[in-house]
Amino acid sequence: MLDAGAIVMADLILSGDNALIIGMAAASLSPQLRAKAILFGMVIAAVLRIVFAVVATKLLGIPGILFLGGLLLCWVCWRLYTEIRAGVDEQAEVAIATAGDSHMGYTGPPRRTLLKALWTITLADVSMSLDNVLAVAAIADGDTRLLVLGLALAILLMAFAATLIMHLLTRFPVISWLGLAVLVYVAAEMLLRGALDSHHGLGPMLGLIDGYTFGKGN
Q1: Which of 43, 119, 201, 203 has a 20 to 30 A CA-CA distance from 165?
Q2: Residue 132's domain spans which residues?
Q3: Is 101 helix (H, G, I), strand (E, B) or coil?
Q4: Is residue 213 situated within a structural domain?
């Protein structure tokens, strides 16, 4: 259950940019369509993550890929660090609050369909999914059931409590910093295993060392 909690934490702290996009897209709709846009947008974002993360989990079993994944996860950590410093969660909270207030954002007659807004959200989410995919796939470490369980819980939380989550992350930045620390640990472990693991490591694959057997993932 600790890994499931880590997956949920990773998904939530990395959801600020998605919440921002969803909130901005919803705020551009007429008030009567916004609630549906936020709900469907969150569900689409989460479902895409499950699909991509299941694929990534399988790919991480290929020799040599684990080390590359560790390098990419280091980039994810840096990206999350810059987002925390830039206050992305605060911006997302404002965007979602604006979309949820019928007197804010666009208040005129319908000029954009819900389908078009969801298409915009989907395209943006596909382009921003790498961070979540790498983080949760690395934590799940090949356990597809754990992966789906953790992300399913994150779906429920983001779909029905997105405003509350963004508010908590904004009010208590320490949550995001703790999440970042978890991801840094996961990235370091991936790099270590990616270099030295006897089954998936670059060192043994290139014949440089005999390799070591790590307890996790074997």
Answers
A1: 119
A2: 2-185
A3: coil
A4: no
- Residue 7 token pair: 């997956």
Assess if residue 211 is contained within a domain: no
CB 96 within 8 A of CB 15: no
- Structural domain count of the chain: 1
Which tens digits make up the pLDDT trace of 27-65? Answer: 778 777 777 877 787 777 777 877 877 777 777 677 677
Q: How far is CA 194 from the centre of its chain?
A: 22
Model confidence at 140, in pLDDT bands (50, 70, 90)? confident
pLDDT band at 218 (very low <50, low <70, confident <90, very high): very low
> Nearest 5 degrees, angle CA 76-CA 77-CA 80?
85
- Tell me, yes or no, whether 216 lies in a domain: no
H helices within 143-172, ranges in order?
144-171
Cα angle for residues 43, 163, 149 (degrees, 5° grid): 40
Give the predicted TM-score (pTM) of the model.
0.71
| Residues forming a β-bridge with 197 | 212
